[in-house]
Specification:
The chain is mainly beta. It has two domains: 199 residues, OB fold (Dihydrolipoamide Acetyltransferase, E2P); 52 residues, Ribosomal protein L2, domain 3. It is built from two helices and 17 strands. The chain has a seven-stranded antiparallel beta sheet with strand order 9-16-10-13-14-15-17, with no helix packed on it. Strands 7-6-5-8 form a four-stranded antiparallel beta sheet, with no helix packed on it. The longest helix has 6 residues. The chain starts with a strand and ends with a strand. The model has no long low-confidence stretch (mean pLDDT 93).
Amino acid sequence: MAIKAFRPFTPVSRFKTVNTNDQVTTDRPYWPLLAPKKRKGGRNSYGRITVRHQGGGAKQHYRIVDFKRNKVDVPAVVETIEYDPNRTCFIALIRYRDGERRYILATTNMKVGTEVVSTAEAAIADGNCIPLGKVPAGMMVHNIELKPGKGGQIARTAGAYAEVVAKENNMVQLKFPSTEIRNIHEQCRATIGQVSNIEHMNVVIGSAGRRRHMGVRPTVRGMAMNPVDHPMGGGEGRSKSGGGRQHPVSPWGQKSKGLKTRTKKKASSKYIVRRRGK
């Protein structure tokens, strides 16, 4: 993958960069695997805005992606690698030997013609889906299940991966780029390789119009508001939270720096061997 920059003919082109999408092979999706996607603009069923800064943007269709990989022991061949407007990584259209087609997450080394399969005895190759207990230590995996048969939930974004570091007591220890180490049952399945489009994080949007085209509305700083609109608003001139030294908070008063929001009694906490940042 490569990032393309522009000559500074305008203030926008001075900083804007785009992804060249070298891995993508087609600009036409497979229509039977598309679903309508209704835009809600961040509003709930009562019409009230519950998620700010959403609205507008280009119309999109949802691509039905197979996260479960439950078509077992049937080889498939990659037909195309496509851009998906609903996620940061690319997706691959695969055709099984019986003729069925499905979308899966594309890996960094996946190409048209690559053969993939989902089975416990599959070879250790990009795109193959196998139980974690069969993956050798040091191998990168993605689209990882938390419960056997539920479908992949972890490491699905662009460039994401987890590394197998140890196996004991029917559990497999995975290390994530955040340095967190987590235990997952060896029967949970994962896909070999790193998710595609690893340069996504380096793209500079560059202009407000491009951000609006993505469906993101403008964001206003709390300090620029009035006290009636935000706890950090007001004050004579530029001030820290209304003239005082109050801790930065959200519009509803929740502290926005350093406050741990994870549920104290979350069921999966017992499977975390080491927290991130420790």
